What we know:
Layout (H helix, E strand, L loop, with lengths): L9 E6 L3 H12 L3 E7 L3 H10 L6 E2 L2 H7 L4 E4 L3 H13 L4 E3 L7 H14 L3 E3 L7 H12 L5 E7 L7 H4 L3 H5 L1 H12 L3 E9 L11 E8 L4 E7 L12 E6 L2 E5 L5 E5 L5 E2 L8 H13 L9 H20 L3 E2 H19 L2 H9 L7
Parallel strand pairs: 1-2, 1-4, 2-3, 4-5, 5-6, 7-10
Antiparallel strand pairs: 7-11, 8-9, 8-15, 9-10, 11-12, 12-13, 13-14
Amino acid sequence: MDAVKDADVRDVIVVGAGGMGRAWMDVVQARVGLRPSAVVDIDTSAARAAAAERGWDVPVFDDVTTALREAPADLLLNVTIPEAHRTVSEAAIRAGIPVLSEKPVTPTVADAMWLGALSVTRGVLLATSQSRRHSAGISAFRAALRDLGGAGQLETQFFQNPRFGGFRDEMASPLLVDMAIHQFDQARFLLGSEPESVYCEEFSPSWSWYRGAAAAQAIFRFSNGARFGYAGSWCADGLMTSWNADWRASAPGGSATWDGEMTVRMQGAEGPEQDVSVGSASEGLDAALTEFLTALDGGEAPSGEIRRNIRSLAMVEAAGESASTGNRVELDSVFARAGAAALAEAEAAGEVEVVDQLRAWEGGPPR
Length: 367
């Protein structure tokens, strides 16, 4: 940091000092050109401890509004629990501070549409960290699918057994709401298309230690005709998959697989099975941060920019609705209801610019 001129340093407020908050703090610490300016958590002792562990001599706060008023900020990392995401991001946007948020960007599509409209009208960047789009393995797998003519059938299996404790153990739909969005977003990335409908069942295996449904199976139809099948569990002891899941795709020119790590294989209609070269790439949280900072410097909008990411969130909401009703759900209906709810809220609050933006987004933000 000493070699960087102050004019070239961005001040960062980190909101959330739990496990993921600490992971993001480590990413900030390792990045030349970023300087922590405050840590926020409703548990100030946790915020103080997290800062001290990293040698940060920064103020701690128990609310984001005070932090934004009293600490310098060029960007804010929102690493709170999902229920707090909208409140924290909204406060920063209204203060003119760009936000990189942990997923989901908000708990509901209606909240995301409202917040997205606010972001656009204020000209303040809001993006979600879809960190699992960023890996050398998924890039190689995507390239293999393109070489094979594009996947018409994509399947993924995600089986892990984390004992988190805390809020996830109490969620009604911990797998769908807190984890499946990663695989849903990866499917959009791999297929290069957008989801249209889903049929989903979620359930609670007898041995699960979660209060809510920790397992699910779903099938999505995409606008290009492709199908995406998802099977997952957060209470699967033994033979776990990668945290990036295990993938298989069928395409006009053959099939390809990815183990979620560094092994990608493909085979055409004729010829031998072959390994696909997997290069190196910035991955995970660091890559998501790089993408965000590049956008702040005038580069392309990040892949997690709220208008681009909202369809991944809509996949989660539609899957949850399907699981609760037992019916296939069209994503257009999710956006219609969410848009109407967001519009009613904006009208009641007298947010004229937000109202105008939401009306322009009838049927959802641009694809």
